[in-house]
Specification:
Blueprint: H1 10-37, H2 41-47, H3 49-56, H4 69-96, H5 98-118, H6 122-150, H7 156-181, H8 188-194, H9 197-206, H10 214-219, H11 223-234, H12 240-253, H13 259-263, H14 269-283, H15 287-300, H16 305-333, H17 335-360, H18 369-387, H19 390-401, H20 407-436, H21 439-458, H22 470-473
């Protein structure tokens, strides 16, 4: 090879990471914006006047004043759409690459933003949310894979967590926008929804700047270009070992069975079960119930509208800075240590919040000032532990554990599991809070206990293990999952021998 070969500069490689991570900014902004918008009187008067009337009679029941299926549908419809879009995104990701999938995500999202900001009726509003969901489904499929595939192994965890960091930044930006937009009547909600187009536009432009991942290029038959991009990303021509790992994984991926058929084999069960359950548990920590409806929650415990939005901003700041902790520590302490520590902290805070509300917050009235501030502090401690553990790691672990032959399809199952549970929580939380009252926090605490046990016994450590070397170094060494590694059968029911040694 020529000695004059030009490599990507380190600043350009970092820029590629940041551009891709903007997909997380889109996702996070939507998580944060929906709860604030649904607490704005102008928005409720426009689309949900009966909810606004019920809100004015808040003394009737603190826990039920926002309980309405259509208000919840405004939030949850996006995630139902994203559930189905993630499988389509998987196909696009495999056939056209991660880069083109992110480009498509930004286009769908921009169209949805335009429909939402201009909506004059509930139907157009929900249709806009559905298109936003397609964008989120495509983006959440492509971005974590892109980041894991272009990152050097020694910092793969930190690079992948940029996605979750940008999710938290998006939530914070949404909370700030909600606070200021709520002061502009009657169009503040349009501003809040319309600004979602900013990260989508950045991703749209950035999609023309970033390179495709070497893995995707080699998988699609462009081996020479894939090697060239790999050399440019690593800043050296000495990439033989990593290149051959990707090529062998690609050869395995192109064998006769479809990726879905391979995903159903016993040997695919460990990453599939863990990938899906990580996403289920992430949502049943209760995090999105708090992030979606933080302003509503804080109004419930006694803060006024402005106080509730300010409290949400504080939580957003905690979320961002705690995610930075994860970037710094995930490749030092590993995945399991962060997950287990967070389970202890989240369980404790959820139980204490539940006890305070059960004892002190009745269906009418409100908490005292000190108690309400205490709830905010406990929520911050809860968010803190989530942000350096289950938030980023639920995306990181599935993106690094699937072999190439099932990577996009397997990750689509993980993303769809997340979207399904997000939809369930978004659609049900306000009704659950109405009927379960403070008991909802005990409900989530039980889930946190279960997920701690799941990690303790079934989630192996993947720190420092090459993506395409997981089978031999992780699954075959695990006390439980190793029994699935030699049980594959082909279409005729015959046992399949290991085809390629990675």
């Amino acid at each position: 090879m020529s000695r004059t070969k030009k490599f990507y500069s380190k600043p350009f490689v970092v820029l590629c990471w940041l551009i891709a991570a903007v997909g997380g900014l889109m996702f996070g902004y939507d998580i944060g914006i929906s709860g604030g918008v649904t607490s704005m009187d102008d928005f409720l008067l426009k689309f949900f006047p009966h909810v606004y009337a019920k809100k004015l009679r808040a003394k009737e029941n603190n826990y039920c004043k926002f309980d309405d299926q259509f208000v919840q549908l405004f939030t949850s419809s996006l995630y139902l759409s994203a559930l189905f879009a993630s499988f389509l995104g998987s196909k696009v990701c495999s056939k056209y690459g991660r880069k083109m999938t992110m480009l498509a995500a930004s286009i769908f999202y921009l169209v949805g933003v335009g429909m939402n900001a201009a909506a004059n009726g509930l139907i157009l509003l929900i249709l806009g949310r559905i298109l936003l969901g397609v964008g989120v489904g495509f983006g959440n499929e492509a971005v974590p894979l892109f980041l894991s595939e272009i990152a050097p192994i020694n910092i793969r965890g930190a690079v992948n967590i940029l996605f979750q960091l940008f999710v938290t930044i998006g939530i914070l930006c949404a909370n700030l926008v909600n606070y200021f937009a709520s002061k502009h009547h009657p169009w503040g909600w349009r501003l809040a929804l319309g600004l979602a187009g900013v990260p989508a536009f950045i991703l749209l432009v950035g999609s023309f700047i970033i390179p495709e991942t070497p893995t995707s290029l080699i998988e699609r038959g462009h081996e020479q270009k894939g090697r060239m991009i790999l050399e440019k990303l690593r800043g050296t021509e000495n990439v033989d070992e990593e290149y051959h790992q990707i090529v062998m994984a690609s050869e395995l991926a192109h064998q006769s069975q479809s990726s879905l058929s391979k995903l159903m084999r016993p040997s695919s069960r460990p990453p599939l079960v863990i990938g899906m359950m990580m996403q289920v548990f992430q949502q049943f920590t209760g995090i999105n119930a708090i992030m979606f409806y933080a302003p509503v929650l804080f109004q419930t415990v006694g803060f006024g509208a402005n106080g509730a939005l300010i409290s949400s901003v504080i939580i957003g700041l905690v979320n961002v800075f705690s995610t930075l902790v994860s970037i710094k520590t995930v490749d030092i302490f590993g995945r399991r240590a962060l997950l287990l520590q967070a389970c202890c902290q989240m369980f404790s805070t959820q139980v204490i919040i539940g006890i305070i509300l059960a004892v002190r917050l009745k269906v009418t009235g409100s908490l005292g000032r000190e108690e309400a501030i205490g709830v905010v502090v406990l929520v911050c401690l809860y968010v803190m532990s989530f942000a350096w553990s289950w938030g980023p790691l639920a995306w990181l672990i599935p993106s690094e554990t699937f072999p190439l032959e099932t990577r996009t399809t397997g990750f689509a199952f993980a993303v769809s599991s997340n979207m399904m549970c997000t939809f369930i929580i978004a659609q049900a939380f306000l009704s659950m809070m109405c009927h379960m009252q403070a008991g909802i926090f005990f409900f989530f605490a039980v889930w946190i206990l279960a997920m701690g046990l799941f990690v303790m016994f079934l989630v192996p450590e993947t720190k420092g293990v090459p993506i395409d070397d997981m089978v031999d170094r992780v699954w075959k060494q695990h006390w439980f999952w190793k029994k699935y590694m030699d049980r594959d059968v082909d279409e005729n029911g015959q046992r399949v021998k290991k085809e390629i040694q990675l």
